[in-house]
Amino acid sequence: MNDPPATILLVDDRPANLIAFEAILEPLGQRLVRATSGREALRFLLHDQCALILLDVQMPDLDGFATAALIQERPRTRYTPIIFVTAIHREEEEIVKGYAYGAVDYIVKPFNSEALLTKVRVFLEHHRREQALKREVDLRASEREELHRREQVARADAEAQRERLHALFMQAPAAIAILRGPDQVFELANSRFEELVCRKDLVGWSGREVLPELIHQGLWDIPDRVYHGGELFIGKEYAVRLDPPCDGHLEERFFNVVAQPTRDVSGKVDGVLVHVVEVTESVLARRKVETLAKQLQDADRSKDEFLAMLSHELRNPLSPILTALELMRLRKNAEGAERERGIIERQVGHLARLVDDLLDVSRATTGKIDLRREPIEMSAIVARAVEVARPLIDSKHHRLNVTVSEVGLAVEGDPVRLAQVISNLLNNAAKYTEPRGHIVVEGFRDDSEVVLRVRDTGQGIPPDRLASMFDLFVQGEQPLDRSEGGLGVGLTLVRSLVQLHGGNVEAHSEGVGRGCEFVVHLPALDRHGPRGQAPRTSGRTEHHRSRRVLVVDDNVDAADTLAEALRHAGHEVRVEYDGSSALAAAKQLQPDVILLDLGLPGMDGFEVARRLRTDAGLSKVRLVAITGYGQAADRKRTAEIGIEQHLVKPVDLDRVIESVEE
Questions:
Q1: Could you report the per-residue pLDDT of 279-290, keeping only the tens digit for each?
Q2: What's 289-364's CATH class?
């Protein structure tokens, strides 16, 4: 780098001397400035600086010493080097005086030009170095100022960033806390964190001191491990007992927890940042889904078991029916077929009971059973149930003890359905108790309830099956031959019927081989005795007139056998297997009664009934639906289109004949 020319101030009252100085110093290539008096020199120095002053001592008005003294008084020129130039040899005290005024050297006229150049070069070099040092100092000062400025900016940015981060932490939906030091002192805790722990003003407090209830849950071990180990901690669905409502009751909540170490400028761990997100709702929702999935799996398994049971139970009666029919075919006459007819009747009755059970449980579980309530004593209900279950109990030689008061245990309910409840419980007790077992029935009043207990000494119920005993299609263990039979709907029906009566039923067992007990609770009715019932009479009479009957069913076997039975009862019968043929036959026959299947192909039974009711010549005919559709909605639909009676398959033949003869 080339330094700019230095300024040399030449002060002399004689122009000739100034010219001489310029001639000698010109080769140095510096800036040479003339001043012909001390005052002119001082004026120049007010605005400029110079590297060296050549100052004549003998000058009028203001001599060299006085000029030097004034130069030295000014701070910006105090250290400017001065070489006095004189033509007179001075005494030593004068020389000392000159040095006191800032002189660095003396030159006596006449002087040697080389000596002058040498001295000037020395001072110029000194000036150059001084200027270089000054520039270096200025540069360093500028750098320090820049560093200081940058530090201030960085500090301001850091503080602003800290404030923004603090604001973000405080407004974050997640719970955030910063703990400092080995004692885990709160430096920051946002509002969400304070809500979770039900504490305020945590800053400045040690975590264990202000939240001691978390110590025994091991929660403070987490920041301890992070602080001392310097390793990140991530906890998924961490279970914690907290009191967010601040009502003094701890409840289990679930959180995703992240605890990470914070470090100082040296890299040493100085605290722990804790970030907590509550996931209680998602955990509980997932658990609920898992529970539902398990229930679906269990239901699917129960369904498969039920289909297997249904297949077995249906095949059992069908096999002897087919065998009996084959025997009748081989005999080729009706004589001697009483035994086969008895077999068929029993097995068809068994099939009908299976279907009835399924229909009952379907209606009961959906609350569609029409209960015929009346006041009745529990003793009468138990008596009916024992009568139904007695054959099975006696066949296995069980001992039955019944302790039910004749009066004082009145309820308001459907006698038939309540007897069905008790008979199902008795049948279960008989089925699942080894021969010569003991069955006990007890009834008593408990405050506003009538309680009935059915206890046995049978095979008992495993503890893990107790909760599901009333679920649909659940049964106790049975041997491979399924000698006990049933579809596993009995207890479901029991629970549904009891609940429809405003009660509940419980199952108890001490385990396998230790028997079981079913307890039925029903609302008690305060009364003194059961209301009498009029005896039922059969709708059939011994004397009836022959009716014209049209049987309509696409099941040929069902239609033909029903027609044959009606002919045997003395009625004129015609059979059709589809809706269109039935309408044509009705116009020809003009029947008194039409037995109509609703599930006909093409034109269904509902459409046939509608057309019959719009035909003036057939509008008075009696319509009786015989169908497999037995839901309440089906009955309502048949009534709306003018069908007088709705019978559900399989139907007892006597009931059909009664409907025809009404």
A1: 888 999 999 999
A2: mainly alpha
